[in-house]
Specification:
Elements: E1 2-5, H1 8-13, H2 15-23, E2 27-30, H3 39-46, E3 51-54, H4 61-65, E4 72-75, H5 85-91, E5 94-97, H6 103-118, H7 121-129, E6 145-149, H8 153-164, E7 168-172, H9 179-184, E8 187-189, H10 192-198, E9 201-204, H11 218-223, E10 229-232, H12 241-250, E11 255-258, E12 278-280, H13 289-306
Parallel strand pairs: 1-2, 1-3, 3-4, 4-5, 6-7, 6-9, 7-8, 9-10, 10-11, 11-12
Amino acid sequence: MNVLITPRGFARYGTDEIARMESLGLSVQCNTTGNPYSADNFLEMAKDSDAIIIGVDICDRAVMKQCQKLKVICKFGVGTDNIDLAYAKQRGIYVGRTVGSNSLSVAEHVAALMFADAKNLYPTIRDVKAGGWCKPTGAELHGKSLGIIGFGAIGKSLAKIATGIGMHVIIYDAFTIDPKTAQENECTIASLDELLEMSDYVSLHVPLLDSTRDMISTQQFDHMKRDACLLNASRGGIVDETALYEALKRGAIRSACFDVYSSEPPRPESPLLALDNFLLTSHIASRTREAERRTCLISTNYILEHLGLQQ
C-alpha cells in the first residue's frame, strides 16, 4: 500500500515514523522538496495513494474522485477546511486530525503575541535597528482580562498560561462548557457578547466552518473595548478583514495580532499590512520542533490503525 506525506516538516522530524511505516511494508512518498506541492503534483501523487498525511493541500471532491484507492486521510494539524469532509464520508474514507499535538505551541505563540503587543516589542526593535532609541510606555498583562473563544485543547493551554501570569480568563464556546471544567481552569464562562465587552484581549480558537466564517465583524468590534486587542491563530476567514481594517482605522479596537490570514501569503498591497496596529506572523504558531514530532507520531499512528497495521 502507498502512503503520501505532503507536509514539509515530516521529512525532517518524522524519519523514525517513515522507517516504521516502511518496516510494515508500506511504500512511503514524502515531500523532501522544502516547498509545498503544486495542485497538479499533489493530484498526480495522490491518485495511487491508499493513505495521505496532508498539510495545506486542497483535497476536495474533484481530487478524491481521482483517488480510487484512497482509504484514509490524516490532517497534519487540526484544521480540516482544505478537505471535503462530506464527500470523504460518502466514500467511506476515514479522516483524522492530530488533535492536541500542537496545542501548547499555538498557545505559547498567542501568549508571545500578547507580550509583544503589551510591551511594544515590534515597533521598538524596528526603531532601534533603524538607528532610533524610542521609549514607548507599555502595559502589564497581570490583572488584564483575556477572552478565549473556543475552549478546546488550545484554549485550555492558553488559559493555563494566562492564569499563570495573573490574567483573568473569560471563556465562550459554541458547545456547552461544563462549569466544573471552567472552575478547574480558573475561568469564567460568558456569552460571546459578554466576553467581547469584558476582555482586554480576545483570542480566537475555533475551526473555519460556514458557521464561523466572518464570525468577528463590525457588530462584534462594536461590542469590544476600544483599548482591546484581537488575537487570531486559528484561521483567517474567521475574521472579516475589511471590517477589521475599518475597526483599527477608526479606533473601535486598539490593535490586532494575527498568525493567519484569509489568503496566505497576503497580497503586499493588503490594506491591513500598512497599519502600525496590525501585526502578522506567517502561520508559524504550530511550527515548533516538539509539535512537529508529536504530529508526525500521531498522524502515523492514525494511518497505521486505519490500514490495519497498528502494532
